[in-house]
């Protein structure tokens, strides 16, 4: 449905008005994927995000627009990303639970979203009848982790 990909150098020092946290490549790829899919972050029902480190997952919630900047911790505290939450994230357990096979991570994430949308995810099936799922992956570019981002938005229905 929608796909976004960006490669961007990290900004050192950060851009004016922007904190030191965040991955501009993810923000830009998300905007591109949302626009192409004709949806926004509020429409995403389930997501698999690149959670290579705890802070990366929190920042990614913000970069994807699931919550405002600086509110990633509050988003988690609200229970929204839990399996039975308002916006389930990483029902598979994420990279920290299943490992991080470089190169295969994105494929595994897309497969998880596919199974979620088809209602075939077994014990980790989300119960919110997902219509849209998002897959997010970041990588290490020439300058820093997160300087490369790929996002896919999948839909239960064909456009």
Task: Describe the overall structure.
A four-stranded mixed beta sheet has the order 1-4-3-2. The protein has 159 residues and is of the alpha+beta class. The chain has helices at residues 24-37, 54-63, 72-77, 94-98, 105-118; strands at residues 2-7, 46-48, 132-140, 145-155. The protein is built from five helices and four strands, in the order E-H-E-H-H-H-H-E-E. The mean pLDDT is 87. A hairpin with a 4-residue loop joins strand 3 and strand 4 (145-155).
Give the beta-strand count: 4
What is the mean predicted local confidence, pLDDT? 87
Number of helices: 5
| Rg over alpha carbons | 15 Å
**What structural class is derived from the secondary structure elements?**
alpha+beta
Question: What distance separates the N and C termini?
Answer: 7 Å
Low confidence ranges? none
Order of helices and strands: EHEHHHHEE
Strand order of the largest sheet: 1-4-3-2
Principal-axes geometry comes out as globular
Task: Assign a percent range to the helix content.
Answer: 25-40%
Biggest beta sheet summary: 4 strands, mixed
Relative strand content: 15-25%
């Amino acid at each position: 449905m929608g796909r976004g990909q960006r490669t961007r150098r990290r900004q050192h020092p950060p851009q004016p008005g922007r904190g030191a946290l965040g991955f501009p490549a993810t923000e830009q790829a998300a905007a591109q994927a949302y626009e192409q899919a004709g949806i926004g972050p509020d429409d995403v029902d389930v997501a698999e995000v690149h959670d290579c480190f705890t802070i990366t997952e929190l920042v990614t919630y913000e970069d994807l627009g699931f919550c405002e900047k600086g509110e990633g911790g509050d988003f988690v505290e609200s229970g929204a990303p839990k399996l039975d939450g308002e916006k389930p994230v990483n029902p598979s357990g994420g990279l920290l639970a299943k490992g991080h096979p470089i190169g295969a991570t994105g494929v595994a994430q897309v497969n998880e979203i596919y199974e979620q949308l088809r209602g075939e995810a077994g014990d980790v099936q989300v119960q919110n009848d997902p219509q849209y799922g998002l897959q997010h992956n970041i990588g290490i570019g020439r300058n820093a982790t997160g300087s490369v981002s790929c996002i896919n938005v999948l839909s239960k229905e064909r456009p």
